[in-house]
Amino acid sequence: MTKFRVRMARGTAAGWVNVEWTDGPDHLHVMALLSMFESSQHEAPACEGASPWRICAGEAHWVREGIVTSREISQDAREKVQRENVRQADDGTFYGMIDTPKGPRIIPAPSQWTTAESVAARVARDLSFQS
């Protein structure tokens, strides 16, 4: 149900694929799917002439150098995480709480001045959402 934008980089970044999406699955789930497309090889065509920019036949070279992912978290998703996963400790600091198969996981705020909105953005990176 999530829309993805997939683009091949150009110029000096040729060989890299950019994948972008909003909400939907987290990075780990997406990379598990994309890893099968990373670093595939091909055989170069016949070499004609001695140019440093040509690849001689018989040499294997990588088609894709790697995959860059970028996930945007919508405002609605951040607000939902803040309501459901962000708590305030007795000392007034905020922390995130995620239920995992191994039990609750606490995501602490990086400082005592971190807002609930910032903690929600950190927690949202580890969660999957329906778009």
- Shape category: elongated
Number of domains: 2
Main beta sheet: 3 strands, mixed
Proportion of beta-strand residues: 25-35%
**Radius of gyration based on Cα positions:** 21 Å
What's the pLDDT, averaged over the residues?
80
What is the H-and-E element order?
EEHEEEHEEEH
User: Structural class per helix/strand content?
Assistant: alpha+beta
Name the helicity range: 10-25%
Our count of helices gives 3
Strand order of the largest sheet: 1-2-5
β-strand number? 8
Give the uncertain stretches in residue-range form. none
The separation of the N and C termini measures 7 Å
Describe, in plain words, how this protein is organized in 3D:
With 131 residues, the chain is an alpha+beta fold. The chain has two domains: 4-72, no CATH class; 75-124, no CATH class. It contains three helices and eight strands, in the order E-E-H-E-E-E-H-E-E-E-H. The strands form three sheets. A three-stranded mixed sheet has the order 1-2-5, covered by helices on one side. Strands 6-7-8 form a three-stranded antiparallel sheet. The chain has a two-stranded antiparallel sheet with strand order 3-4. The mean pLDDT is 80.
